[in-house]
Amino acid sequence: MPPLKTRWDIFCTVVDNYGDIGVTWRLARQLVAEHGLAVRLWVDDLRAFERICPAIDVELEQQLQEGVEVRHWSAEWLSTEAADVVIAAFACQLPGAYMDAMAEREKPPLWMNLDYLSAEDWVIGCHGLPSVKYKTVQKFFFFPGFQPGTGGLLRESGLLERREQFQRDPDAQRKFLHDLGIEPTPGAQLISLFAYENAGLASWLDVLAADATPTHLLVPEGRILGDVARWLGVESLTTGALHVRQSLTVQVLPFVRQDQYDQLLWCCDFNAVRGEDSFVRAQWAGRPMLWHIYQQDEDIHLDKLDAFLALYTKALSPAAAEAMNGLWRAWSAGQPIGALWLAAREHWPELQKNAEQWCLEQALQADLAKALVQFYRNWL
């Protein structure tokens, strides 16, 4: 299929620090690298962006990063020509002047709302449907998802092959961990913890500390650090902090680039993640996981959680599925999970096999970037 000689604009309002920019940054890079598109990524918070892409200069209004033209989306909007394809990530509101520029084009652009990821059944029926219209410009819904009939998940070409090669290479893993200052205790299970504040954490840490199997808990900088510090009985935790309590070693990691975070997930035996971007990357790691879903008004996030669990645990035995459902639901409700963690551990080989099988099944679908490009071709 010949490459598209088109210009794409992706707009991102940073709402939750890293998830929004994490998704749009991955998408922008992939559209450039694998589809040869000219992409501008408009971001309203360059300091949040800098955490996952240290090369970003937060003082620049315009810069080129890995083939993507990064533009600072500030309150003082400067007039600019609209692109051929316009993506409003996560229902963000485009600048009024830019919407007028879209309508002024001789051929209106394809305007898509790249929505939040959900496994709910209604997503399939709404994916690709027309949304609102602004003058001559029609907007369309575009939903990422886990089932045929959705837009799929972000997955770069060759990602699973790179992951499998890395996981088969103990030396590569040791070097990666060493470069981050991590020297795991021999025989310790590695767990990564990236989560929102959670009152249920202490019960989990109590169980890990008392376990006969040592655990090395890797905690990237983030909102959960306050809860970890309280459990340790220290005032605060900063990057590089290392604390040992019984069988549990807790180590605080710096925020790392996206490719490094992928490798961190690949190294770990279990990954606790949050939001959307790290949630998807943990699935590509092929390891058992725990998702802290972003809390929404009226607990509508719990519907999303249950919808995903119904798919993710479908192939498990009834006992293993019950253990995973209990663990995930309690964690997202901020309830104690120590006993639930022990219940899940009883099914560990089955959970490991399920995580890998789920990853391979999701890889059978077209990835999100490819699905967006195909949607544009069909629209043409």
TrEMBL record:
Q: What name does UniProt use for this protein?
A: Protein-arginine rhamnosyltransferase
Flavoprotein listed as a keyword: no
Purpose: Protein-arginine rhamnosyltransferase that catalyzes the transfer of a single rhamnose to elongation factor P (EF-P) on 'Lys-32', a modification required for EF-P-dependent rescue of polyproline stalled ribosomes.
Encoded by which gene?
earP
Source species, domain of life: Bacteria
Record key words, sorted: Elongation factor, Glycosyltransferase, Protein biosynthesis, Transferase
Q: What species does this protein belong to?
A: Pseudomonas koreensis
| NCBIfam families, per database record | efp_Arg_rhamno (TIGR03837)
Q: Name one GO molecular function term.
A: protein-arginine rhamnosyltransferase activity
InterPro entries, alphabetized: EarP
State the family named in the UniProt similarity comment for this chain: Belongs to the glycosyltransferase 104 family.
Give the catalysed reaction(s), semicolon-separated.
Answer: dTDP-beta-L-rhamnose + L-arginyl-[protein] = N(omega)-(alpha-L-rhamnosyl)-L-arginyl-[protein] + dTDP + H(+)
